[in-house]
Specification:
Elements: E1 2-5, H1 9-21, E2 25-28, E3 32-36, E4 47-52, H2 55-64, E5 72-74, H3 77-85, E6 91-93, H4 98-108, E7 115-121, H5 127-133, E8 139-149, H6 155-162, E9 168-171, H7 174-186, H8 190-193, E10 197-200, H9 203-207, E11 216-219, H10 225-230
Parallel strand pairs: 1-2, 1-9, 4-5, 4-7, 5-6, 7-8, 9-10, 10-11
Antiparallel strand pairs: 3-8
Helix pairs in contact: 2-3, 4-5
């Protein structure tokens, strides 16, 4: 299958490799550009653990803080893998979404032992902190990066859609799904998108595609990369 990958360039690398290993052909068309925010080094002296809701959160904190001794609670396996590769000594994989991350952190950490630090993106700041504050934790949240939508559908995607050269599209968040739907409609390619199958990481992601029709929409059982890959039929089928 030829599958459109809409994730930012660095995030698309691992799933692109996984798709090739399964005999599929990834077509990269990032819909957002990740921009890291510069600033002074972060002091985490009174923090007992770091919370990361994305691999970009890990990359962002690595740019601003040299400490790797604090436990890092990661939203899912790709974020956890990024944290381990960055040198964090204890990484806890919540294996789900921000709600799962909050539950795991609350179960393993003690509010009396210090604050939690959320390495947030502009779109994720506040929600996780609110949940954990209600459980008695002090949460420091800093926006360290933002994912900025591209102005127009990437030419790789537009060209493949016009040629009806795609079998499906992989979408990893409601926001990316909305951006995809908006840009495809603006490019006048909705009829071509209707030939595709949409593979979505969550029901909310599938719901954000309401502007477009598809040949089929499938939703992952769990909000992670492995569940997304499990949606795909074997190569050649």
């Amino acid at each position: 299958m030829r599958l459109l990958l809409t994730r930012p360039q660095e995030d698309a690398a691992s799933i692109g490799e996984a798709l090739r290993a399964r005999g599929h052909v990834p077509v990269l068309a990032p819909l957002m550009e990740v921009r890291f925010r510069d600033g002074p080094a972060l002091s985490l002296d009174k923090v007992q653990a770091i919370l990361a809701t994305s691999a970009n959160g890990v990359r962002a904190i690595v740019r601003r803080c040299a400490r790797r001794d604090l436990p890092l609670f990661a939203v899912g396996p790709q974020t956890a893998q990024t944290a381990r590769a960055a040198g964090f000594q204890r990484v806890v994989n919540a294996g789900g979404d921000s709600a799962a991350l909050a539950e795991r952190a609350a179960a393993e950490l003690d509010p009396a032992k210090g604050a939690l630090f959320h390495a947030a993106g502009a779109e994720t700041a506040g929600r996780l902190a609110q949940t954990l504050c209600a459980r008695g934790f002090a949460v420091e949240s800093a926006v360290l990066y933002e994912a900025v939508p591209v102005a127009a559908l990437p030419e790789t995607a537009a060209r493949a859609l016009r040629a009806d050269a795609l079998d499906g599209v992989l979408l990893f968040s409601p926001r990316s799904a909305r951006i995809f739907a908006d840009l495809v409609a603006a490019a006048g390619l909705a009829a071509h998108a209707a030939r595709l199958k949409a593979y979505c990481i969550s029901a909310a992601t599938a719901g954000a595609l309401e502007k477009l029709a598809f040949a089929g929409v499938k939703v992952a059982d769990s909000p992670n990369q492995e569940s997304m890959l499990a949606l795909l039929p074997p190569s050649g089928s």
